[in-house]
Each structure stands twice: as C-alpha cells, then as structure tokens.
User: What shape does this take?
Amino acid sequence: MVNPTHLTTLVAVLRTGSFAGAARELGYTGSAVSQQIAALERETGLQLFDRDARGIRPTAIADQLQASA
Assistant: This one.
C-alpha cells in the first residue's frame, strides 16, 4: 500500500514544480520532501522525476499517479 503522506507530497511537488516549493507549502524541509519522494519511488518501484543540475522534471508516471491519488 502506498503511504498517503507520500502521495500528498507528490501532489505538492507537481503543483509547485519543485521540492523546495512543496517544502514551503507543506511546512517541511527540502530534505524531508526529497526523502518522501525517494520513499514513494521505492514503494512503487517507479522513477517519478528526472533530476539534473537545473532541477526536476516529472515523468509521465508521476502525472498518472497524481491523477489516481
């Protein structure tokens, strides 16, 4: 079963476009958001974001998971 807190964090990241924005919105640290997304990726076995030096980009599966949340 997927942790509902992790899904809430995913939705916030997608809405704000960044881990930092989601952290501000949710009252978490950026590290906590990153850890929750990593845990969600482990739980589901899916890569939810492409990460690079310029930031993050959601994968198509992240959008699909948000729609089912």
Summary: The CA atoms of residues 18 and 56 lie 7 Å apart. Helices lie at 4-16, 19-26, 30-44, 60-68.
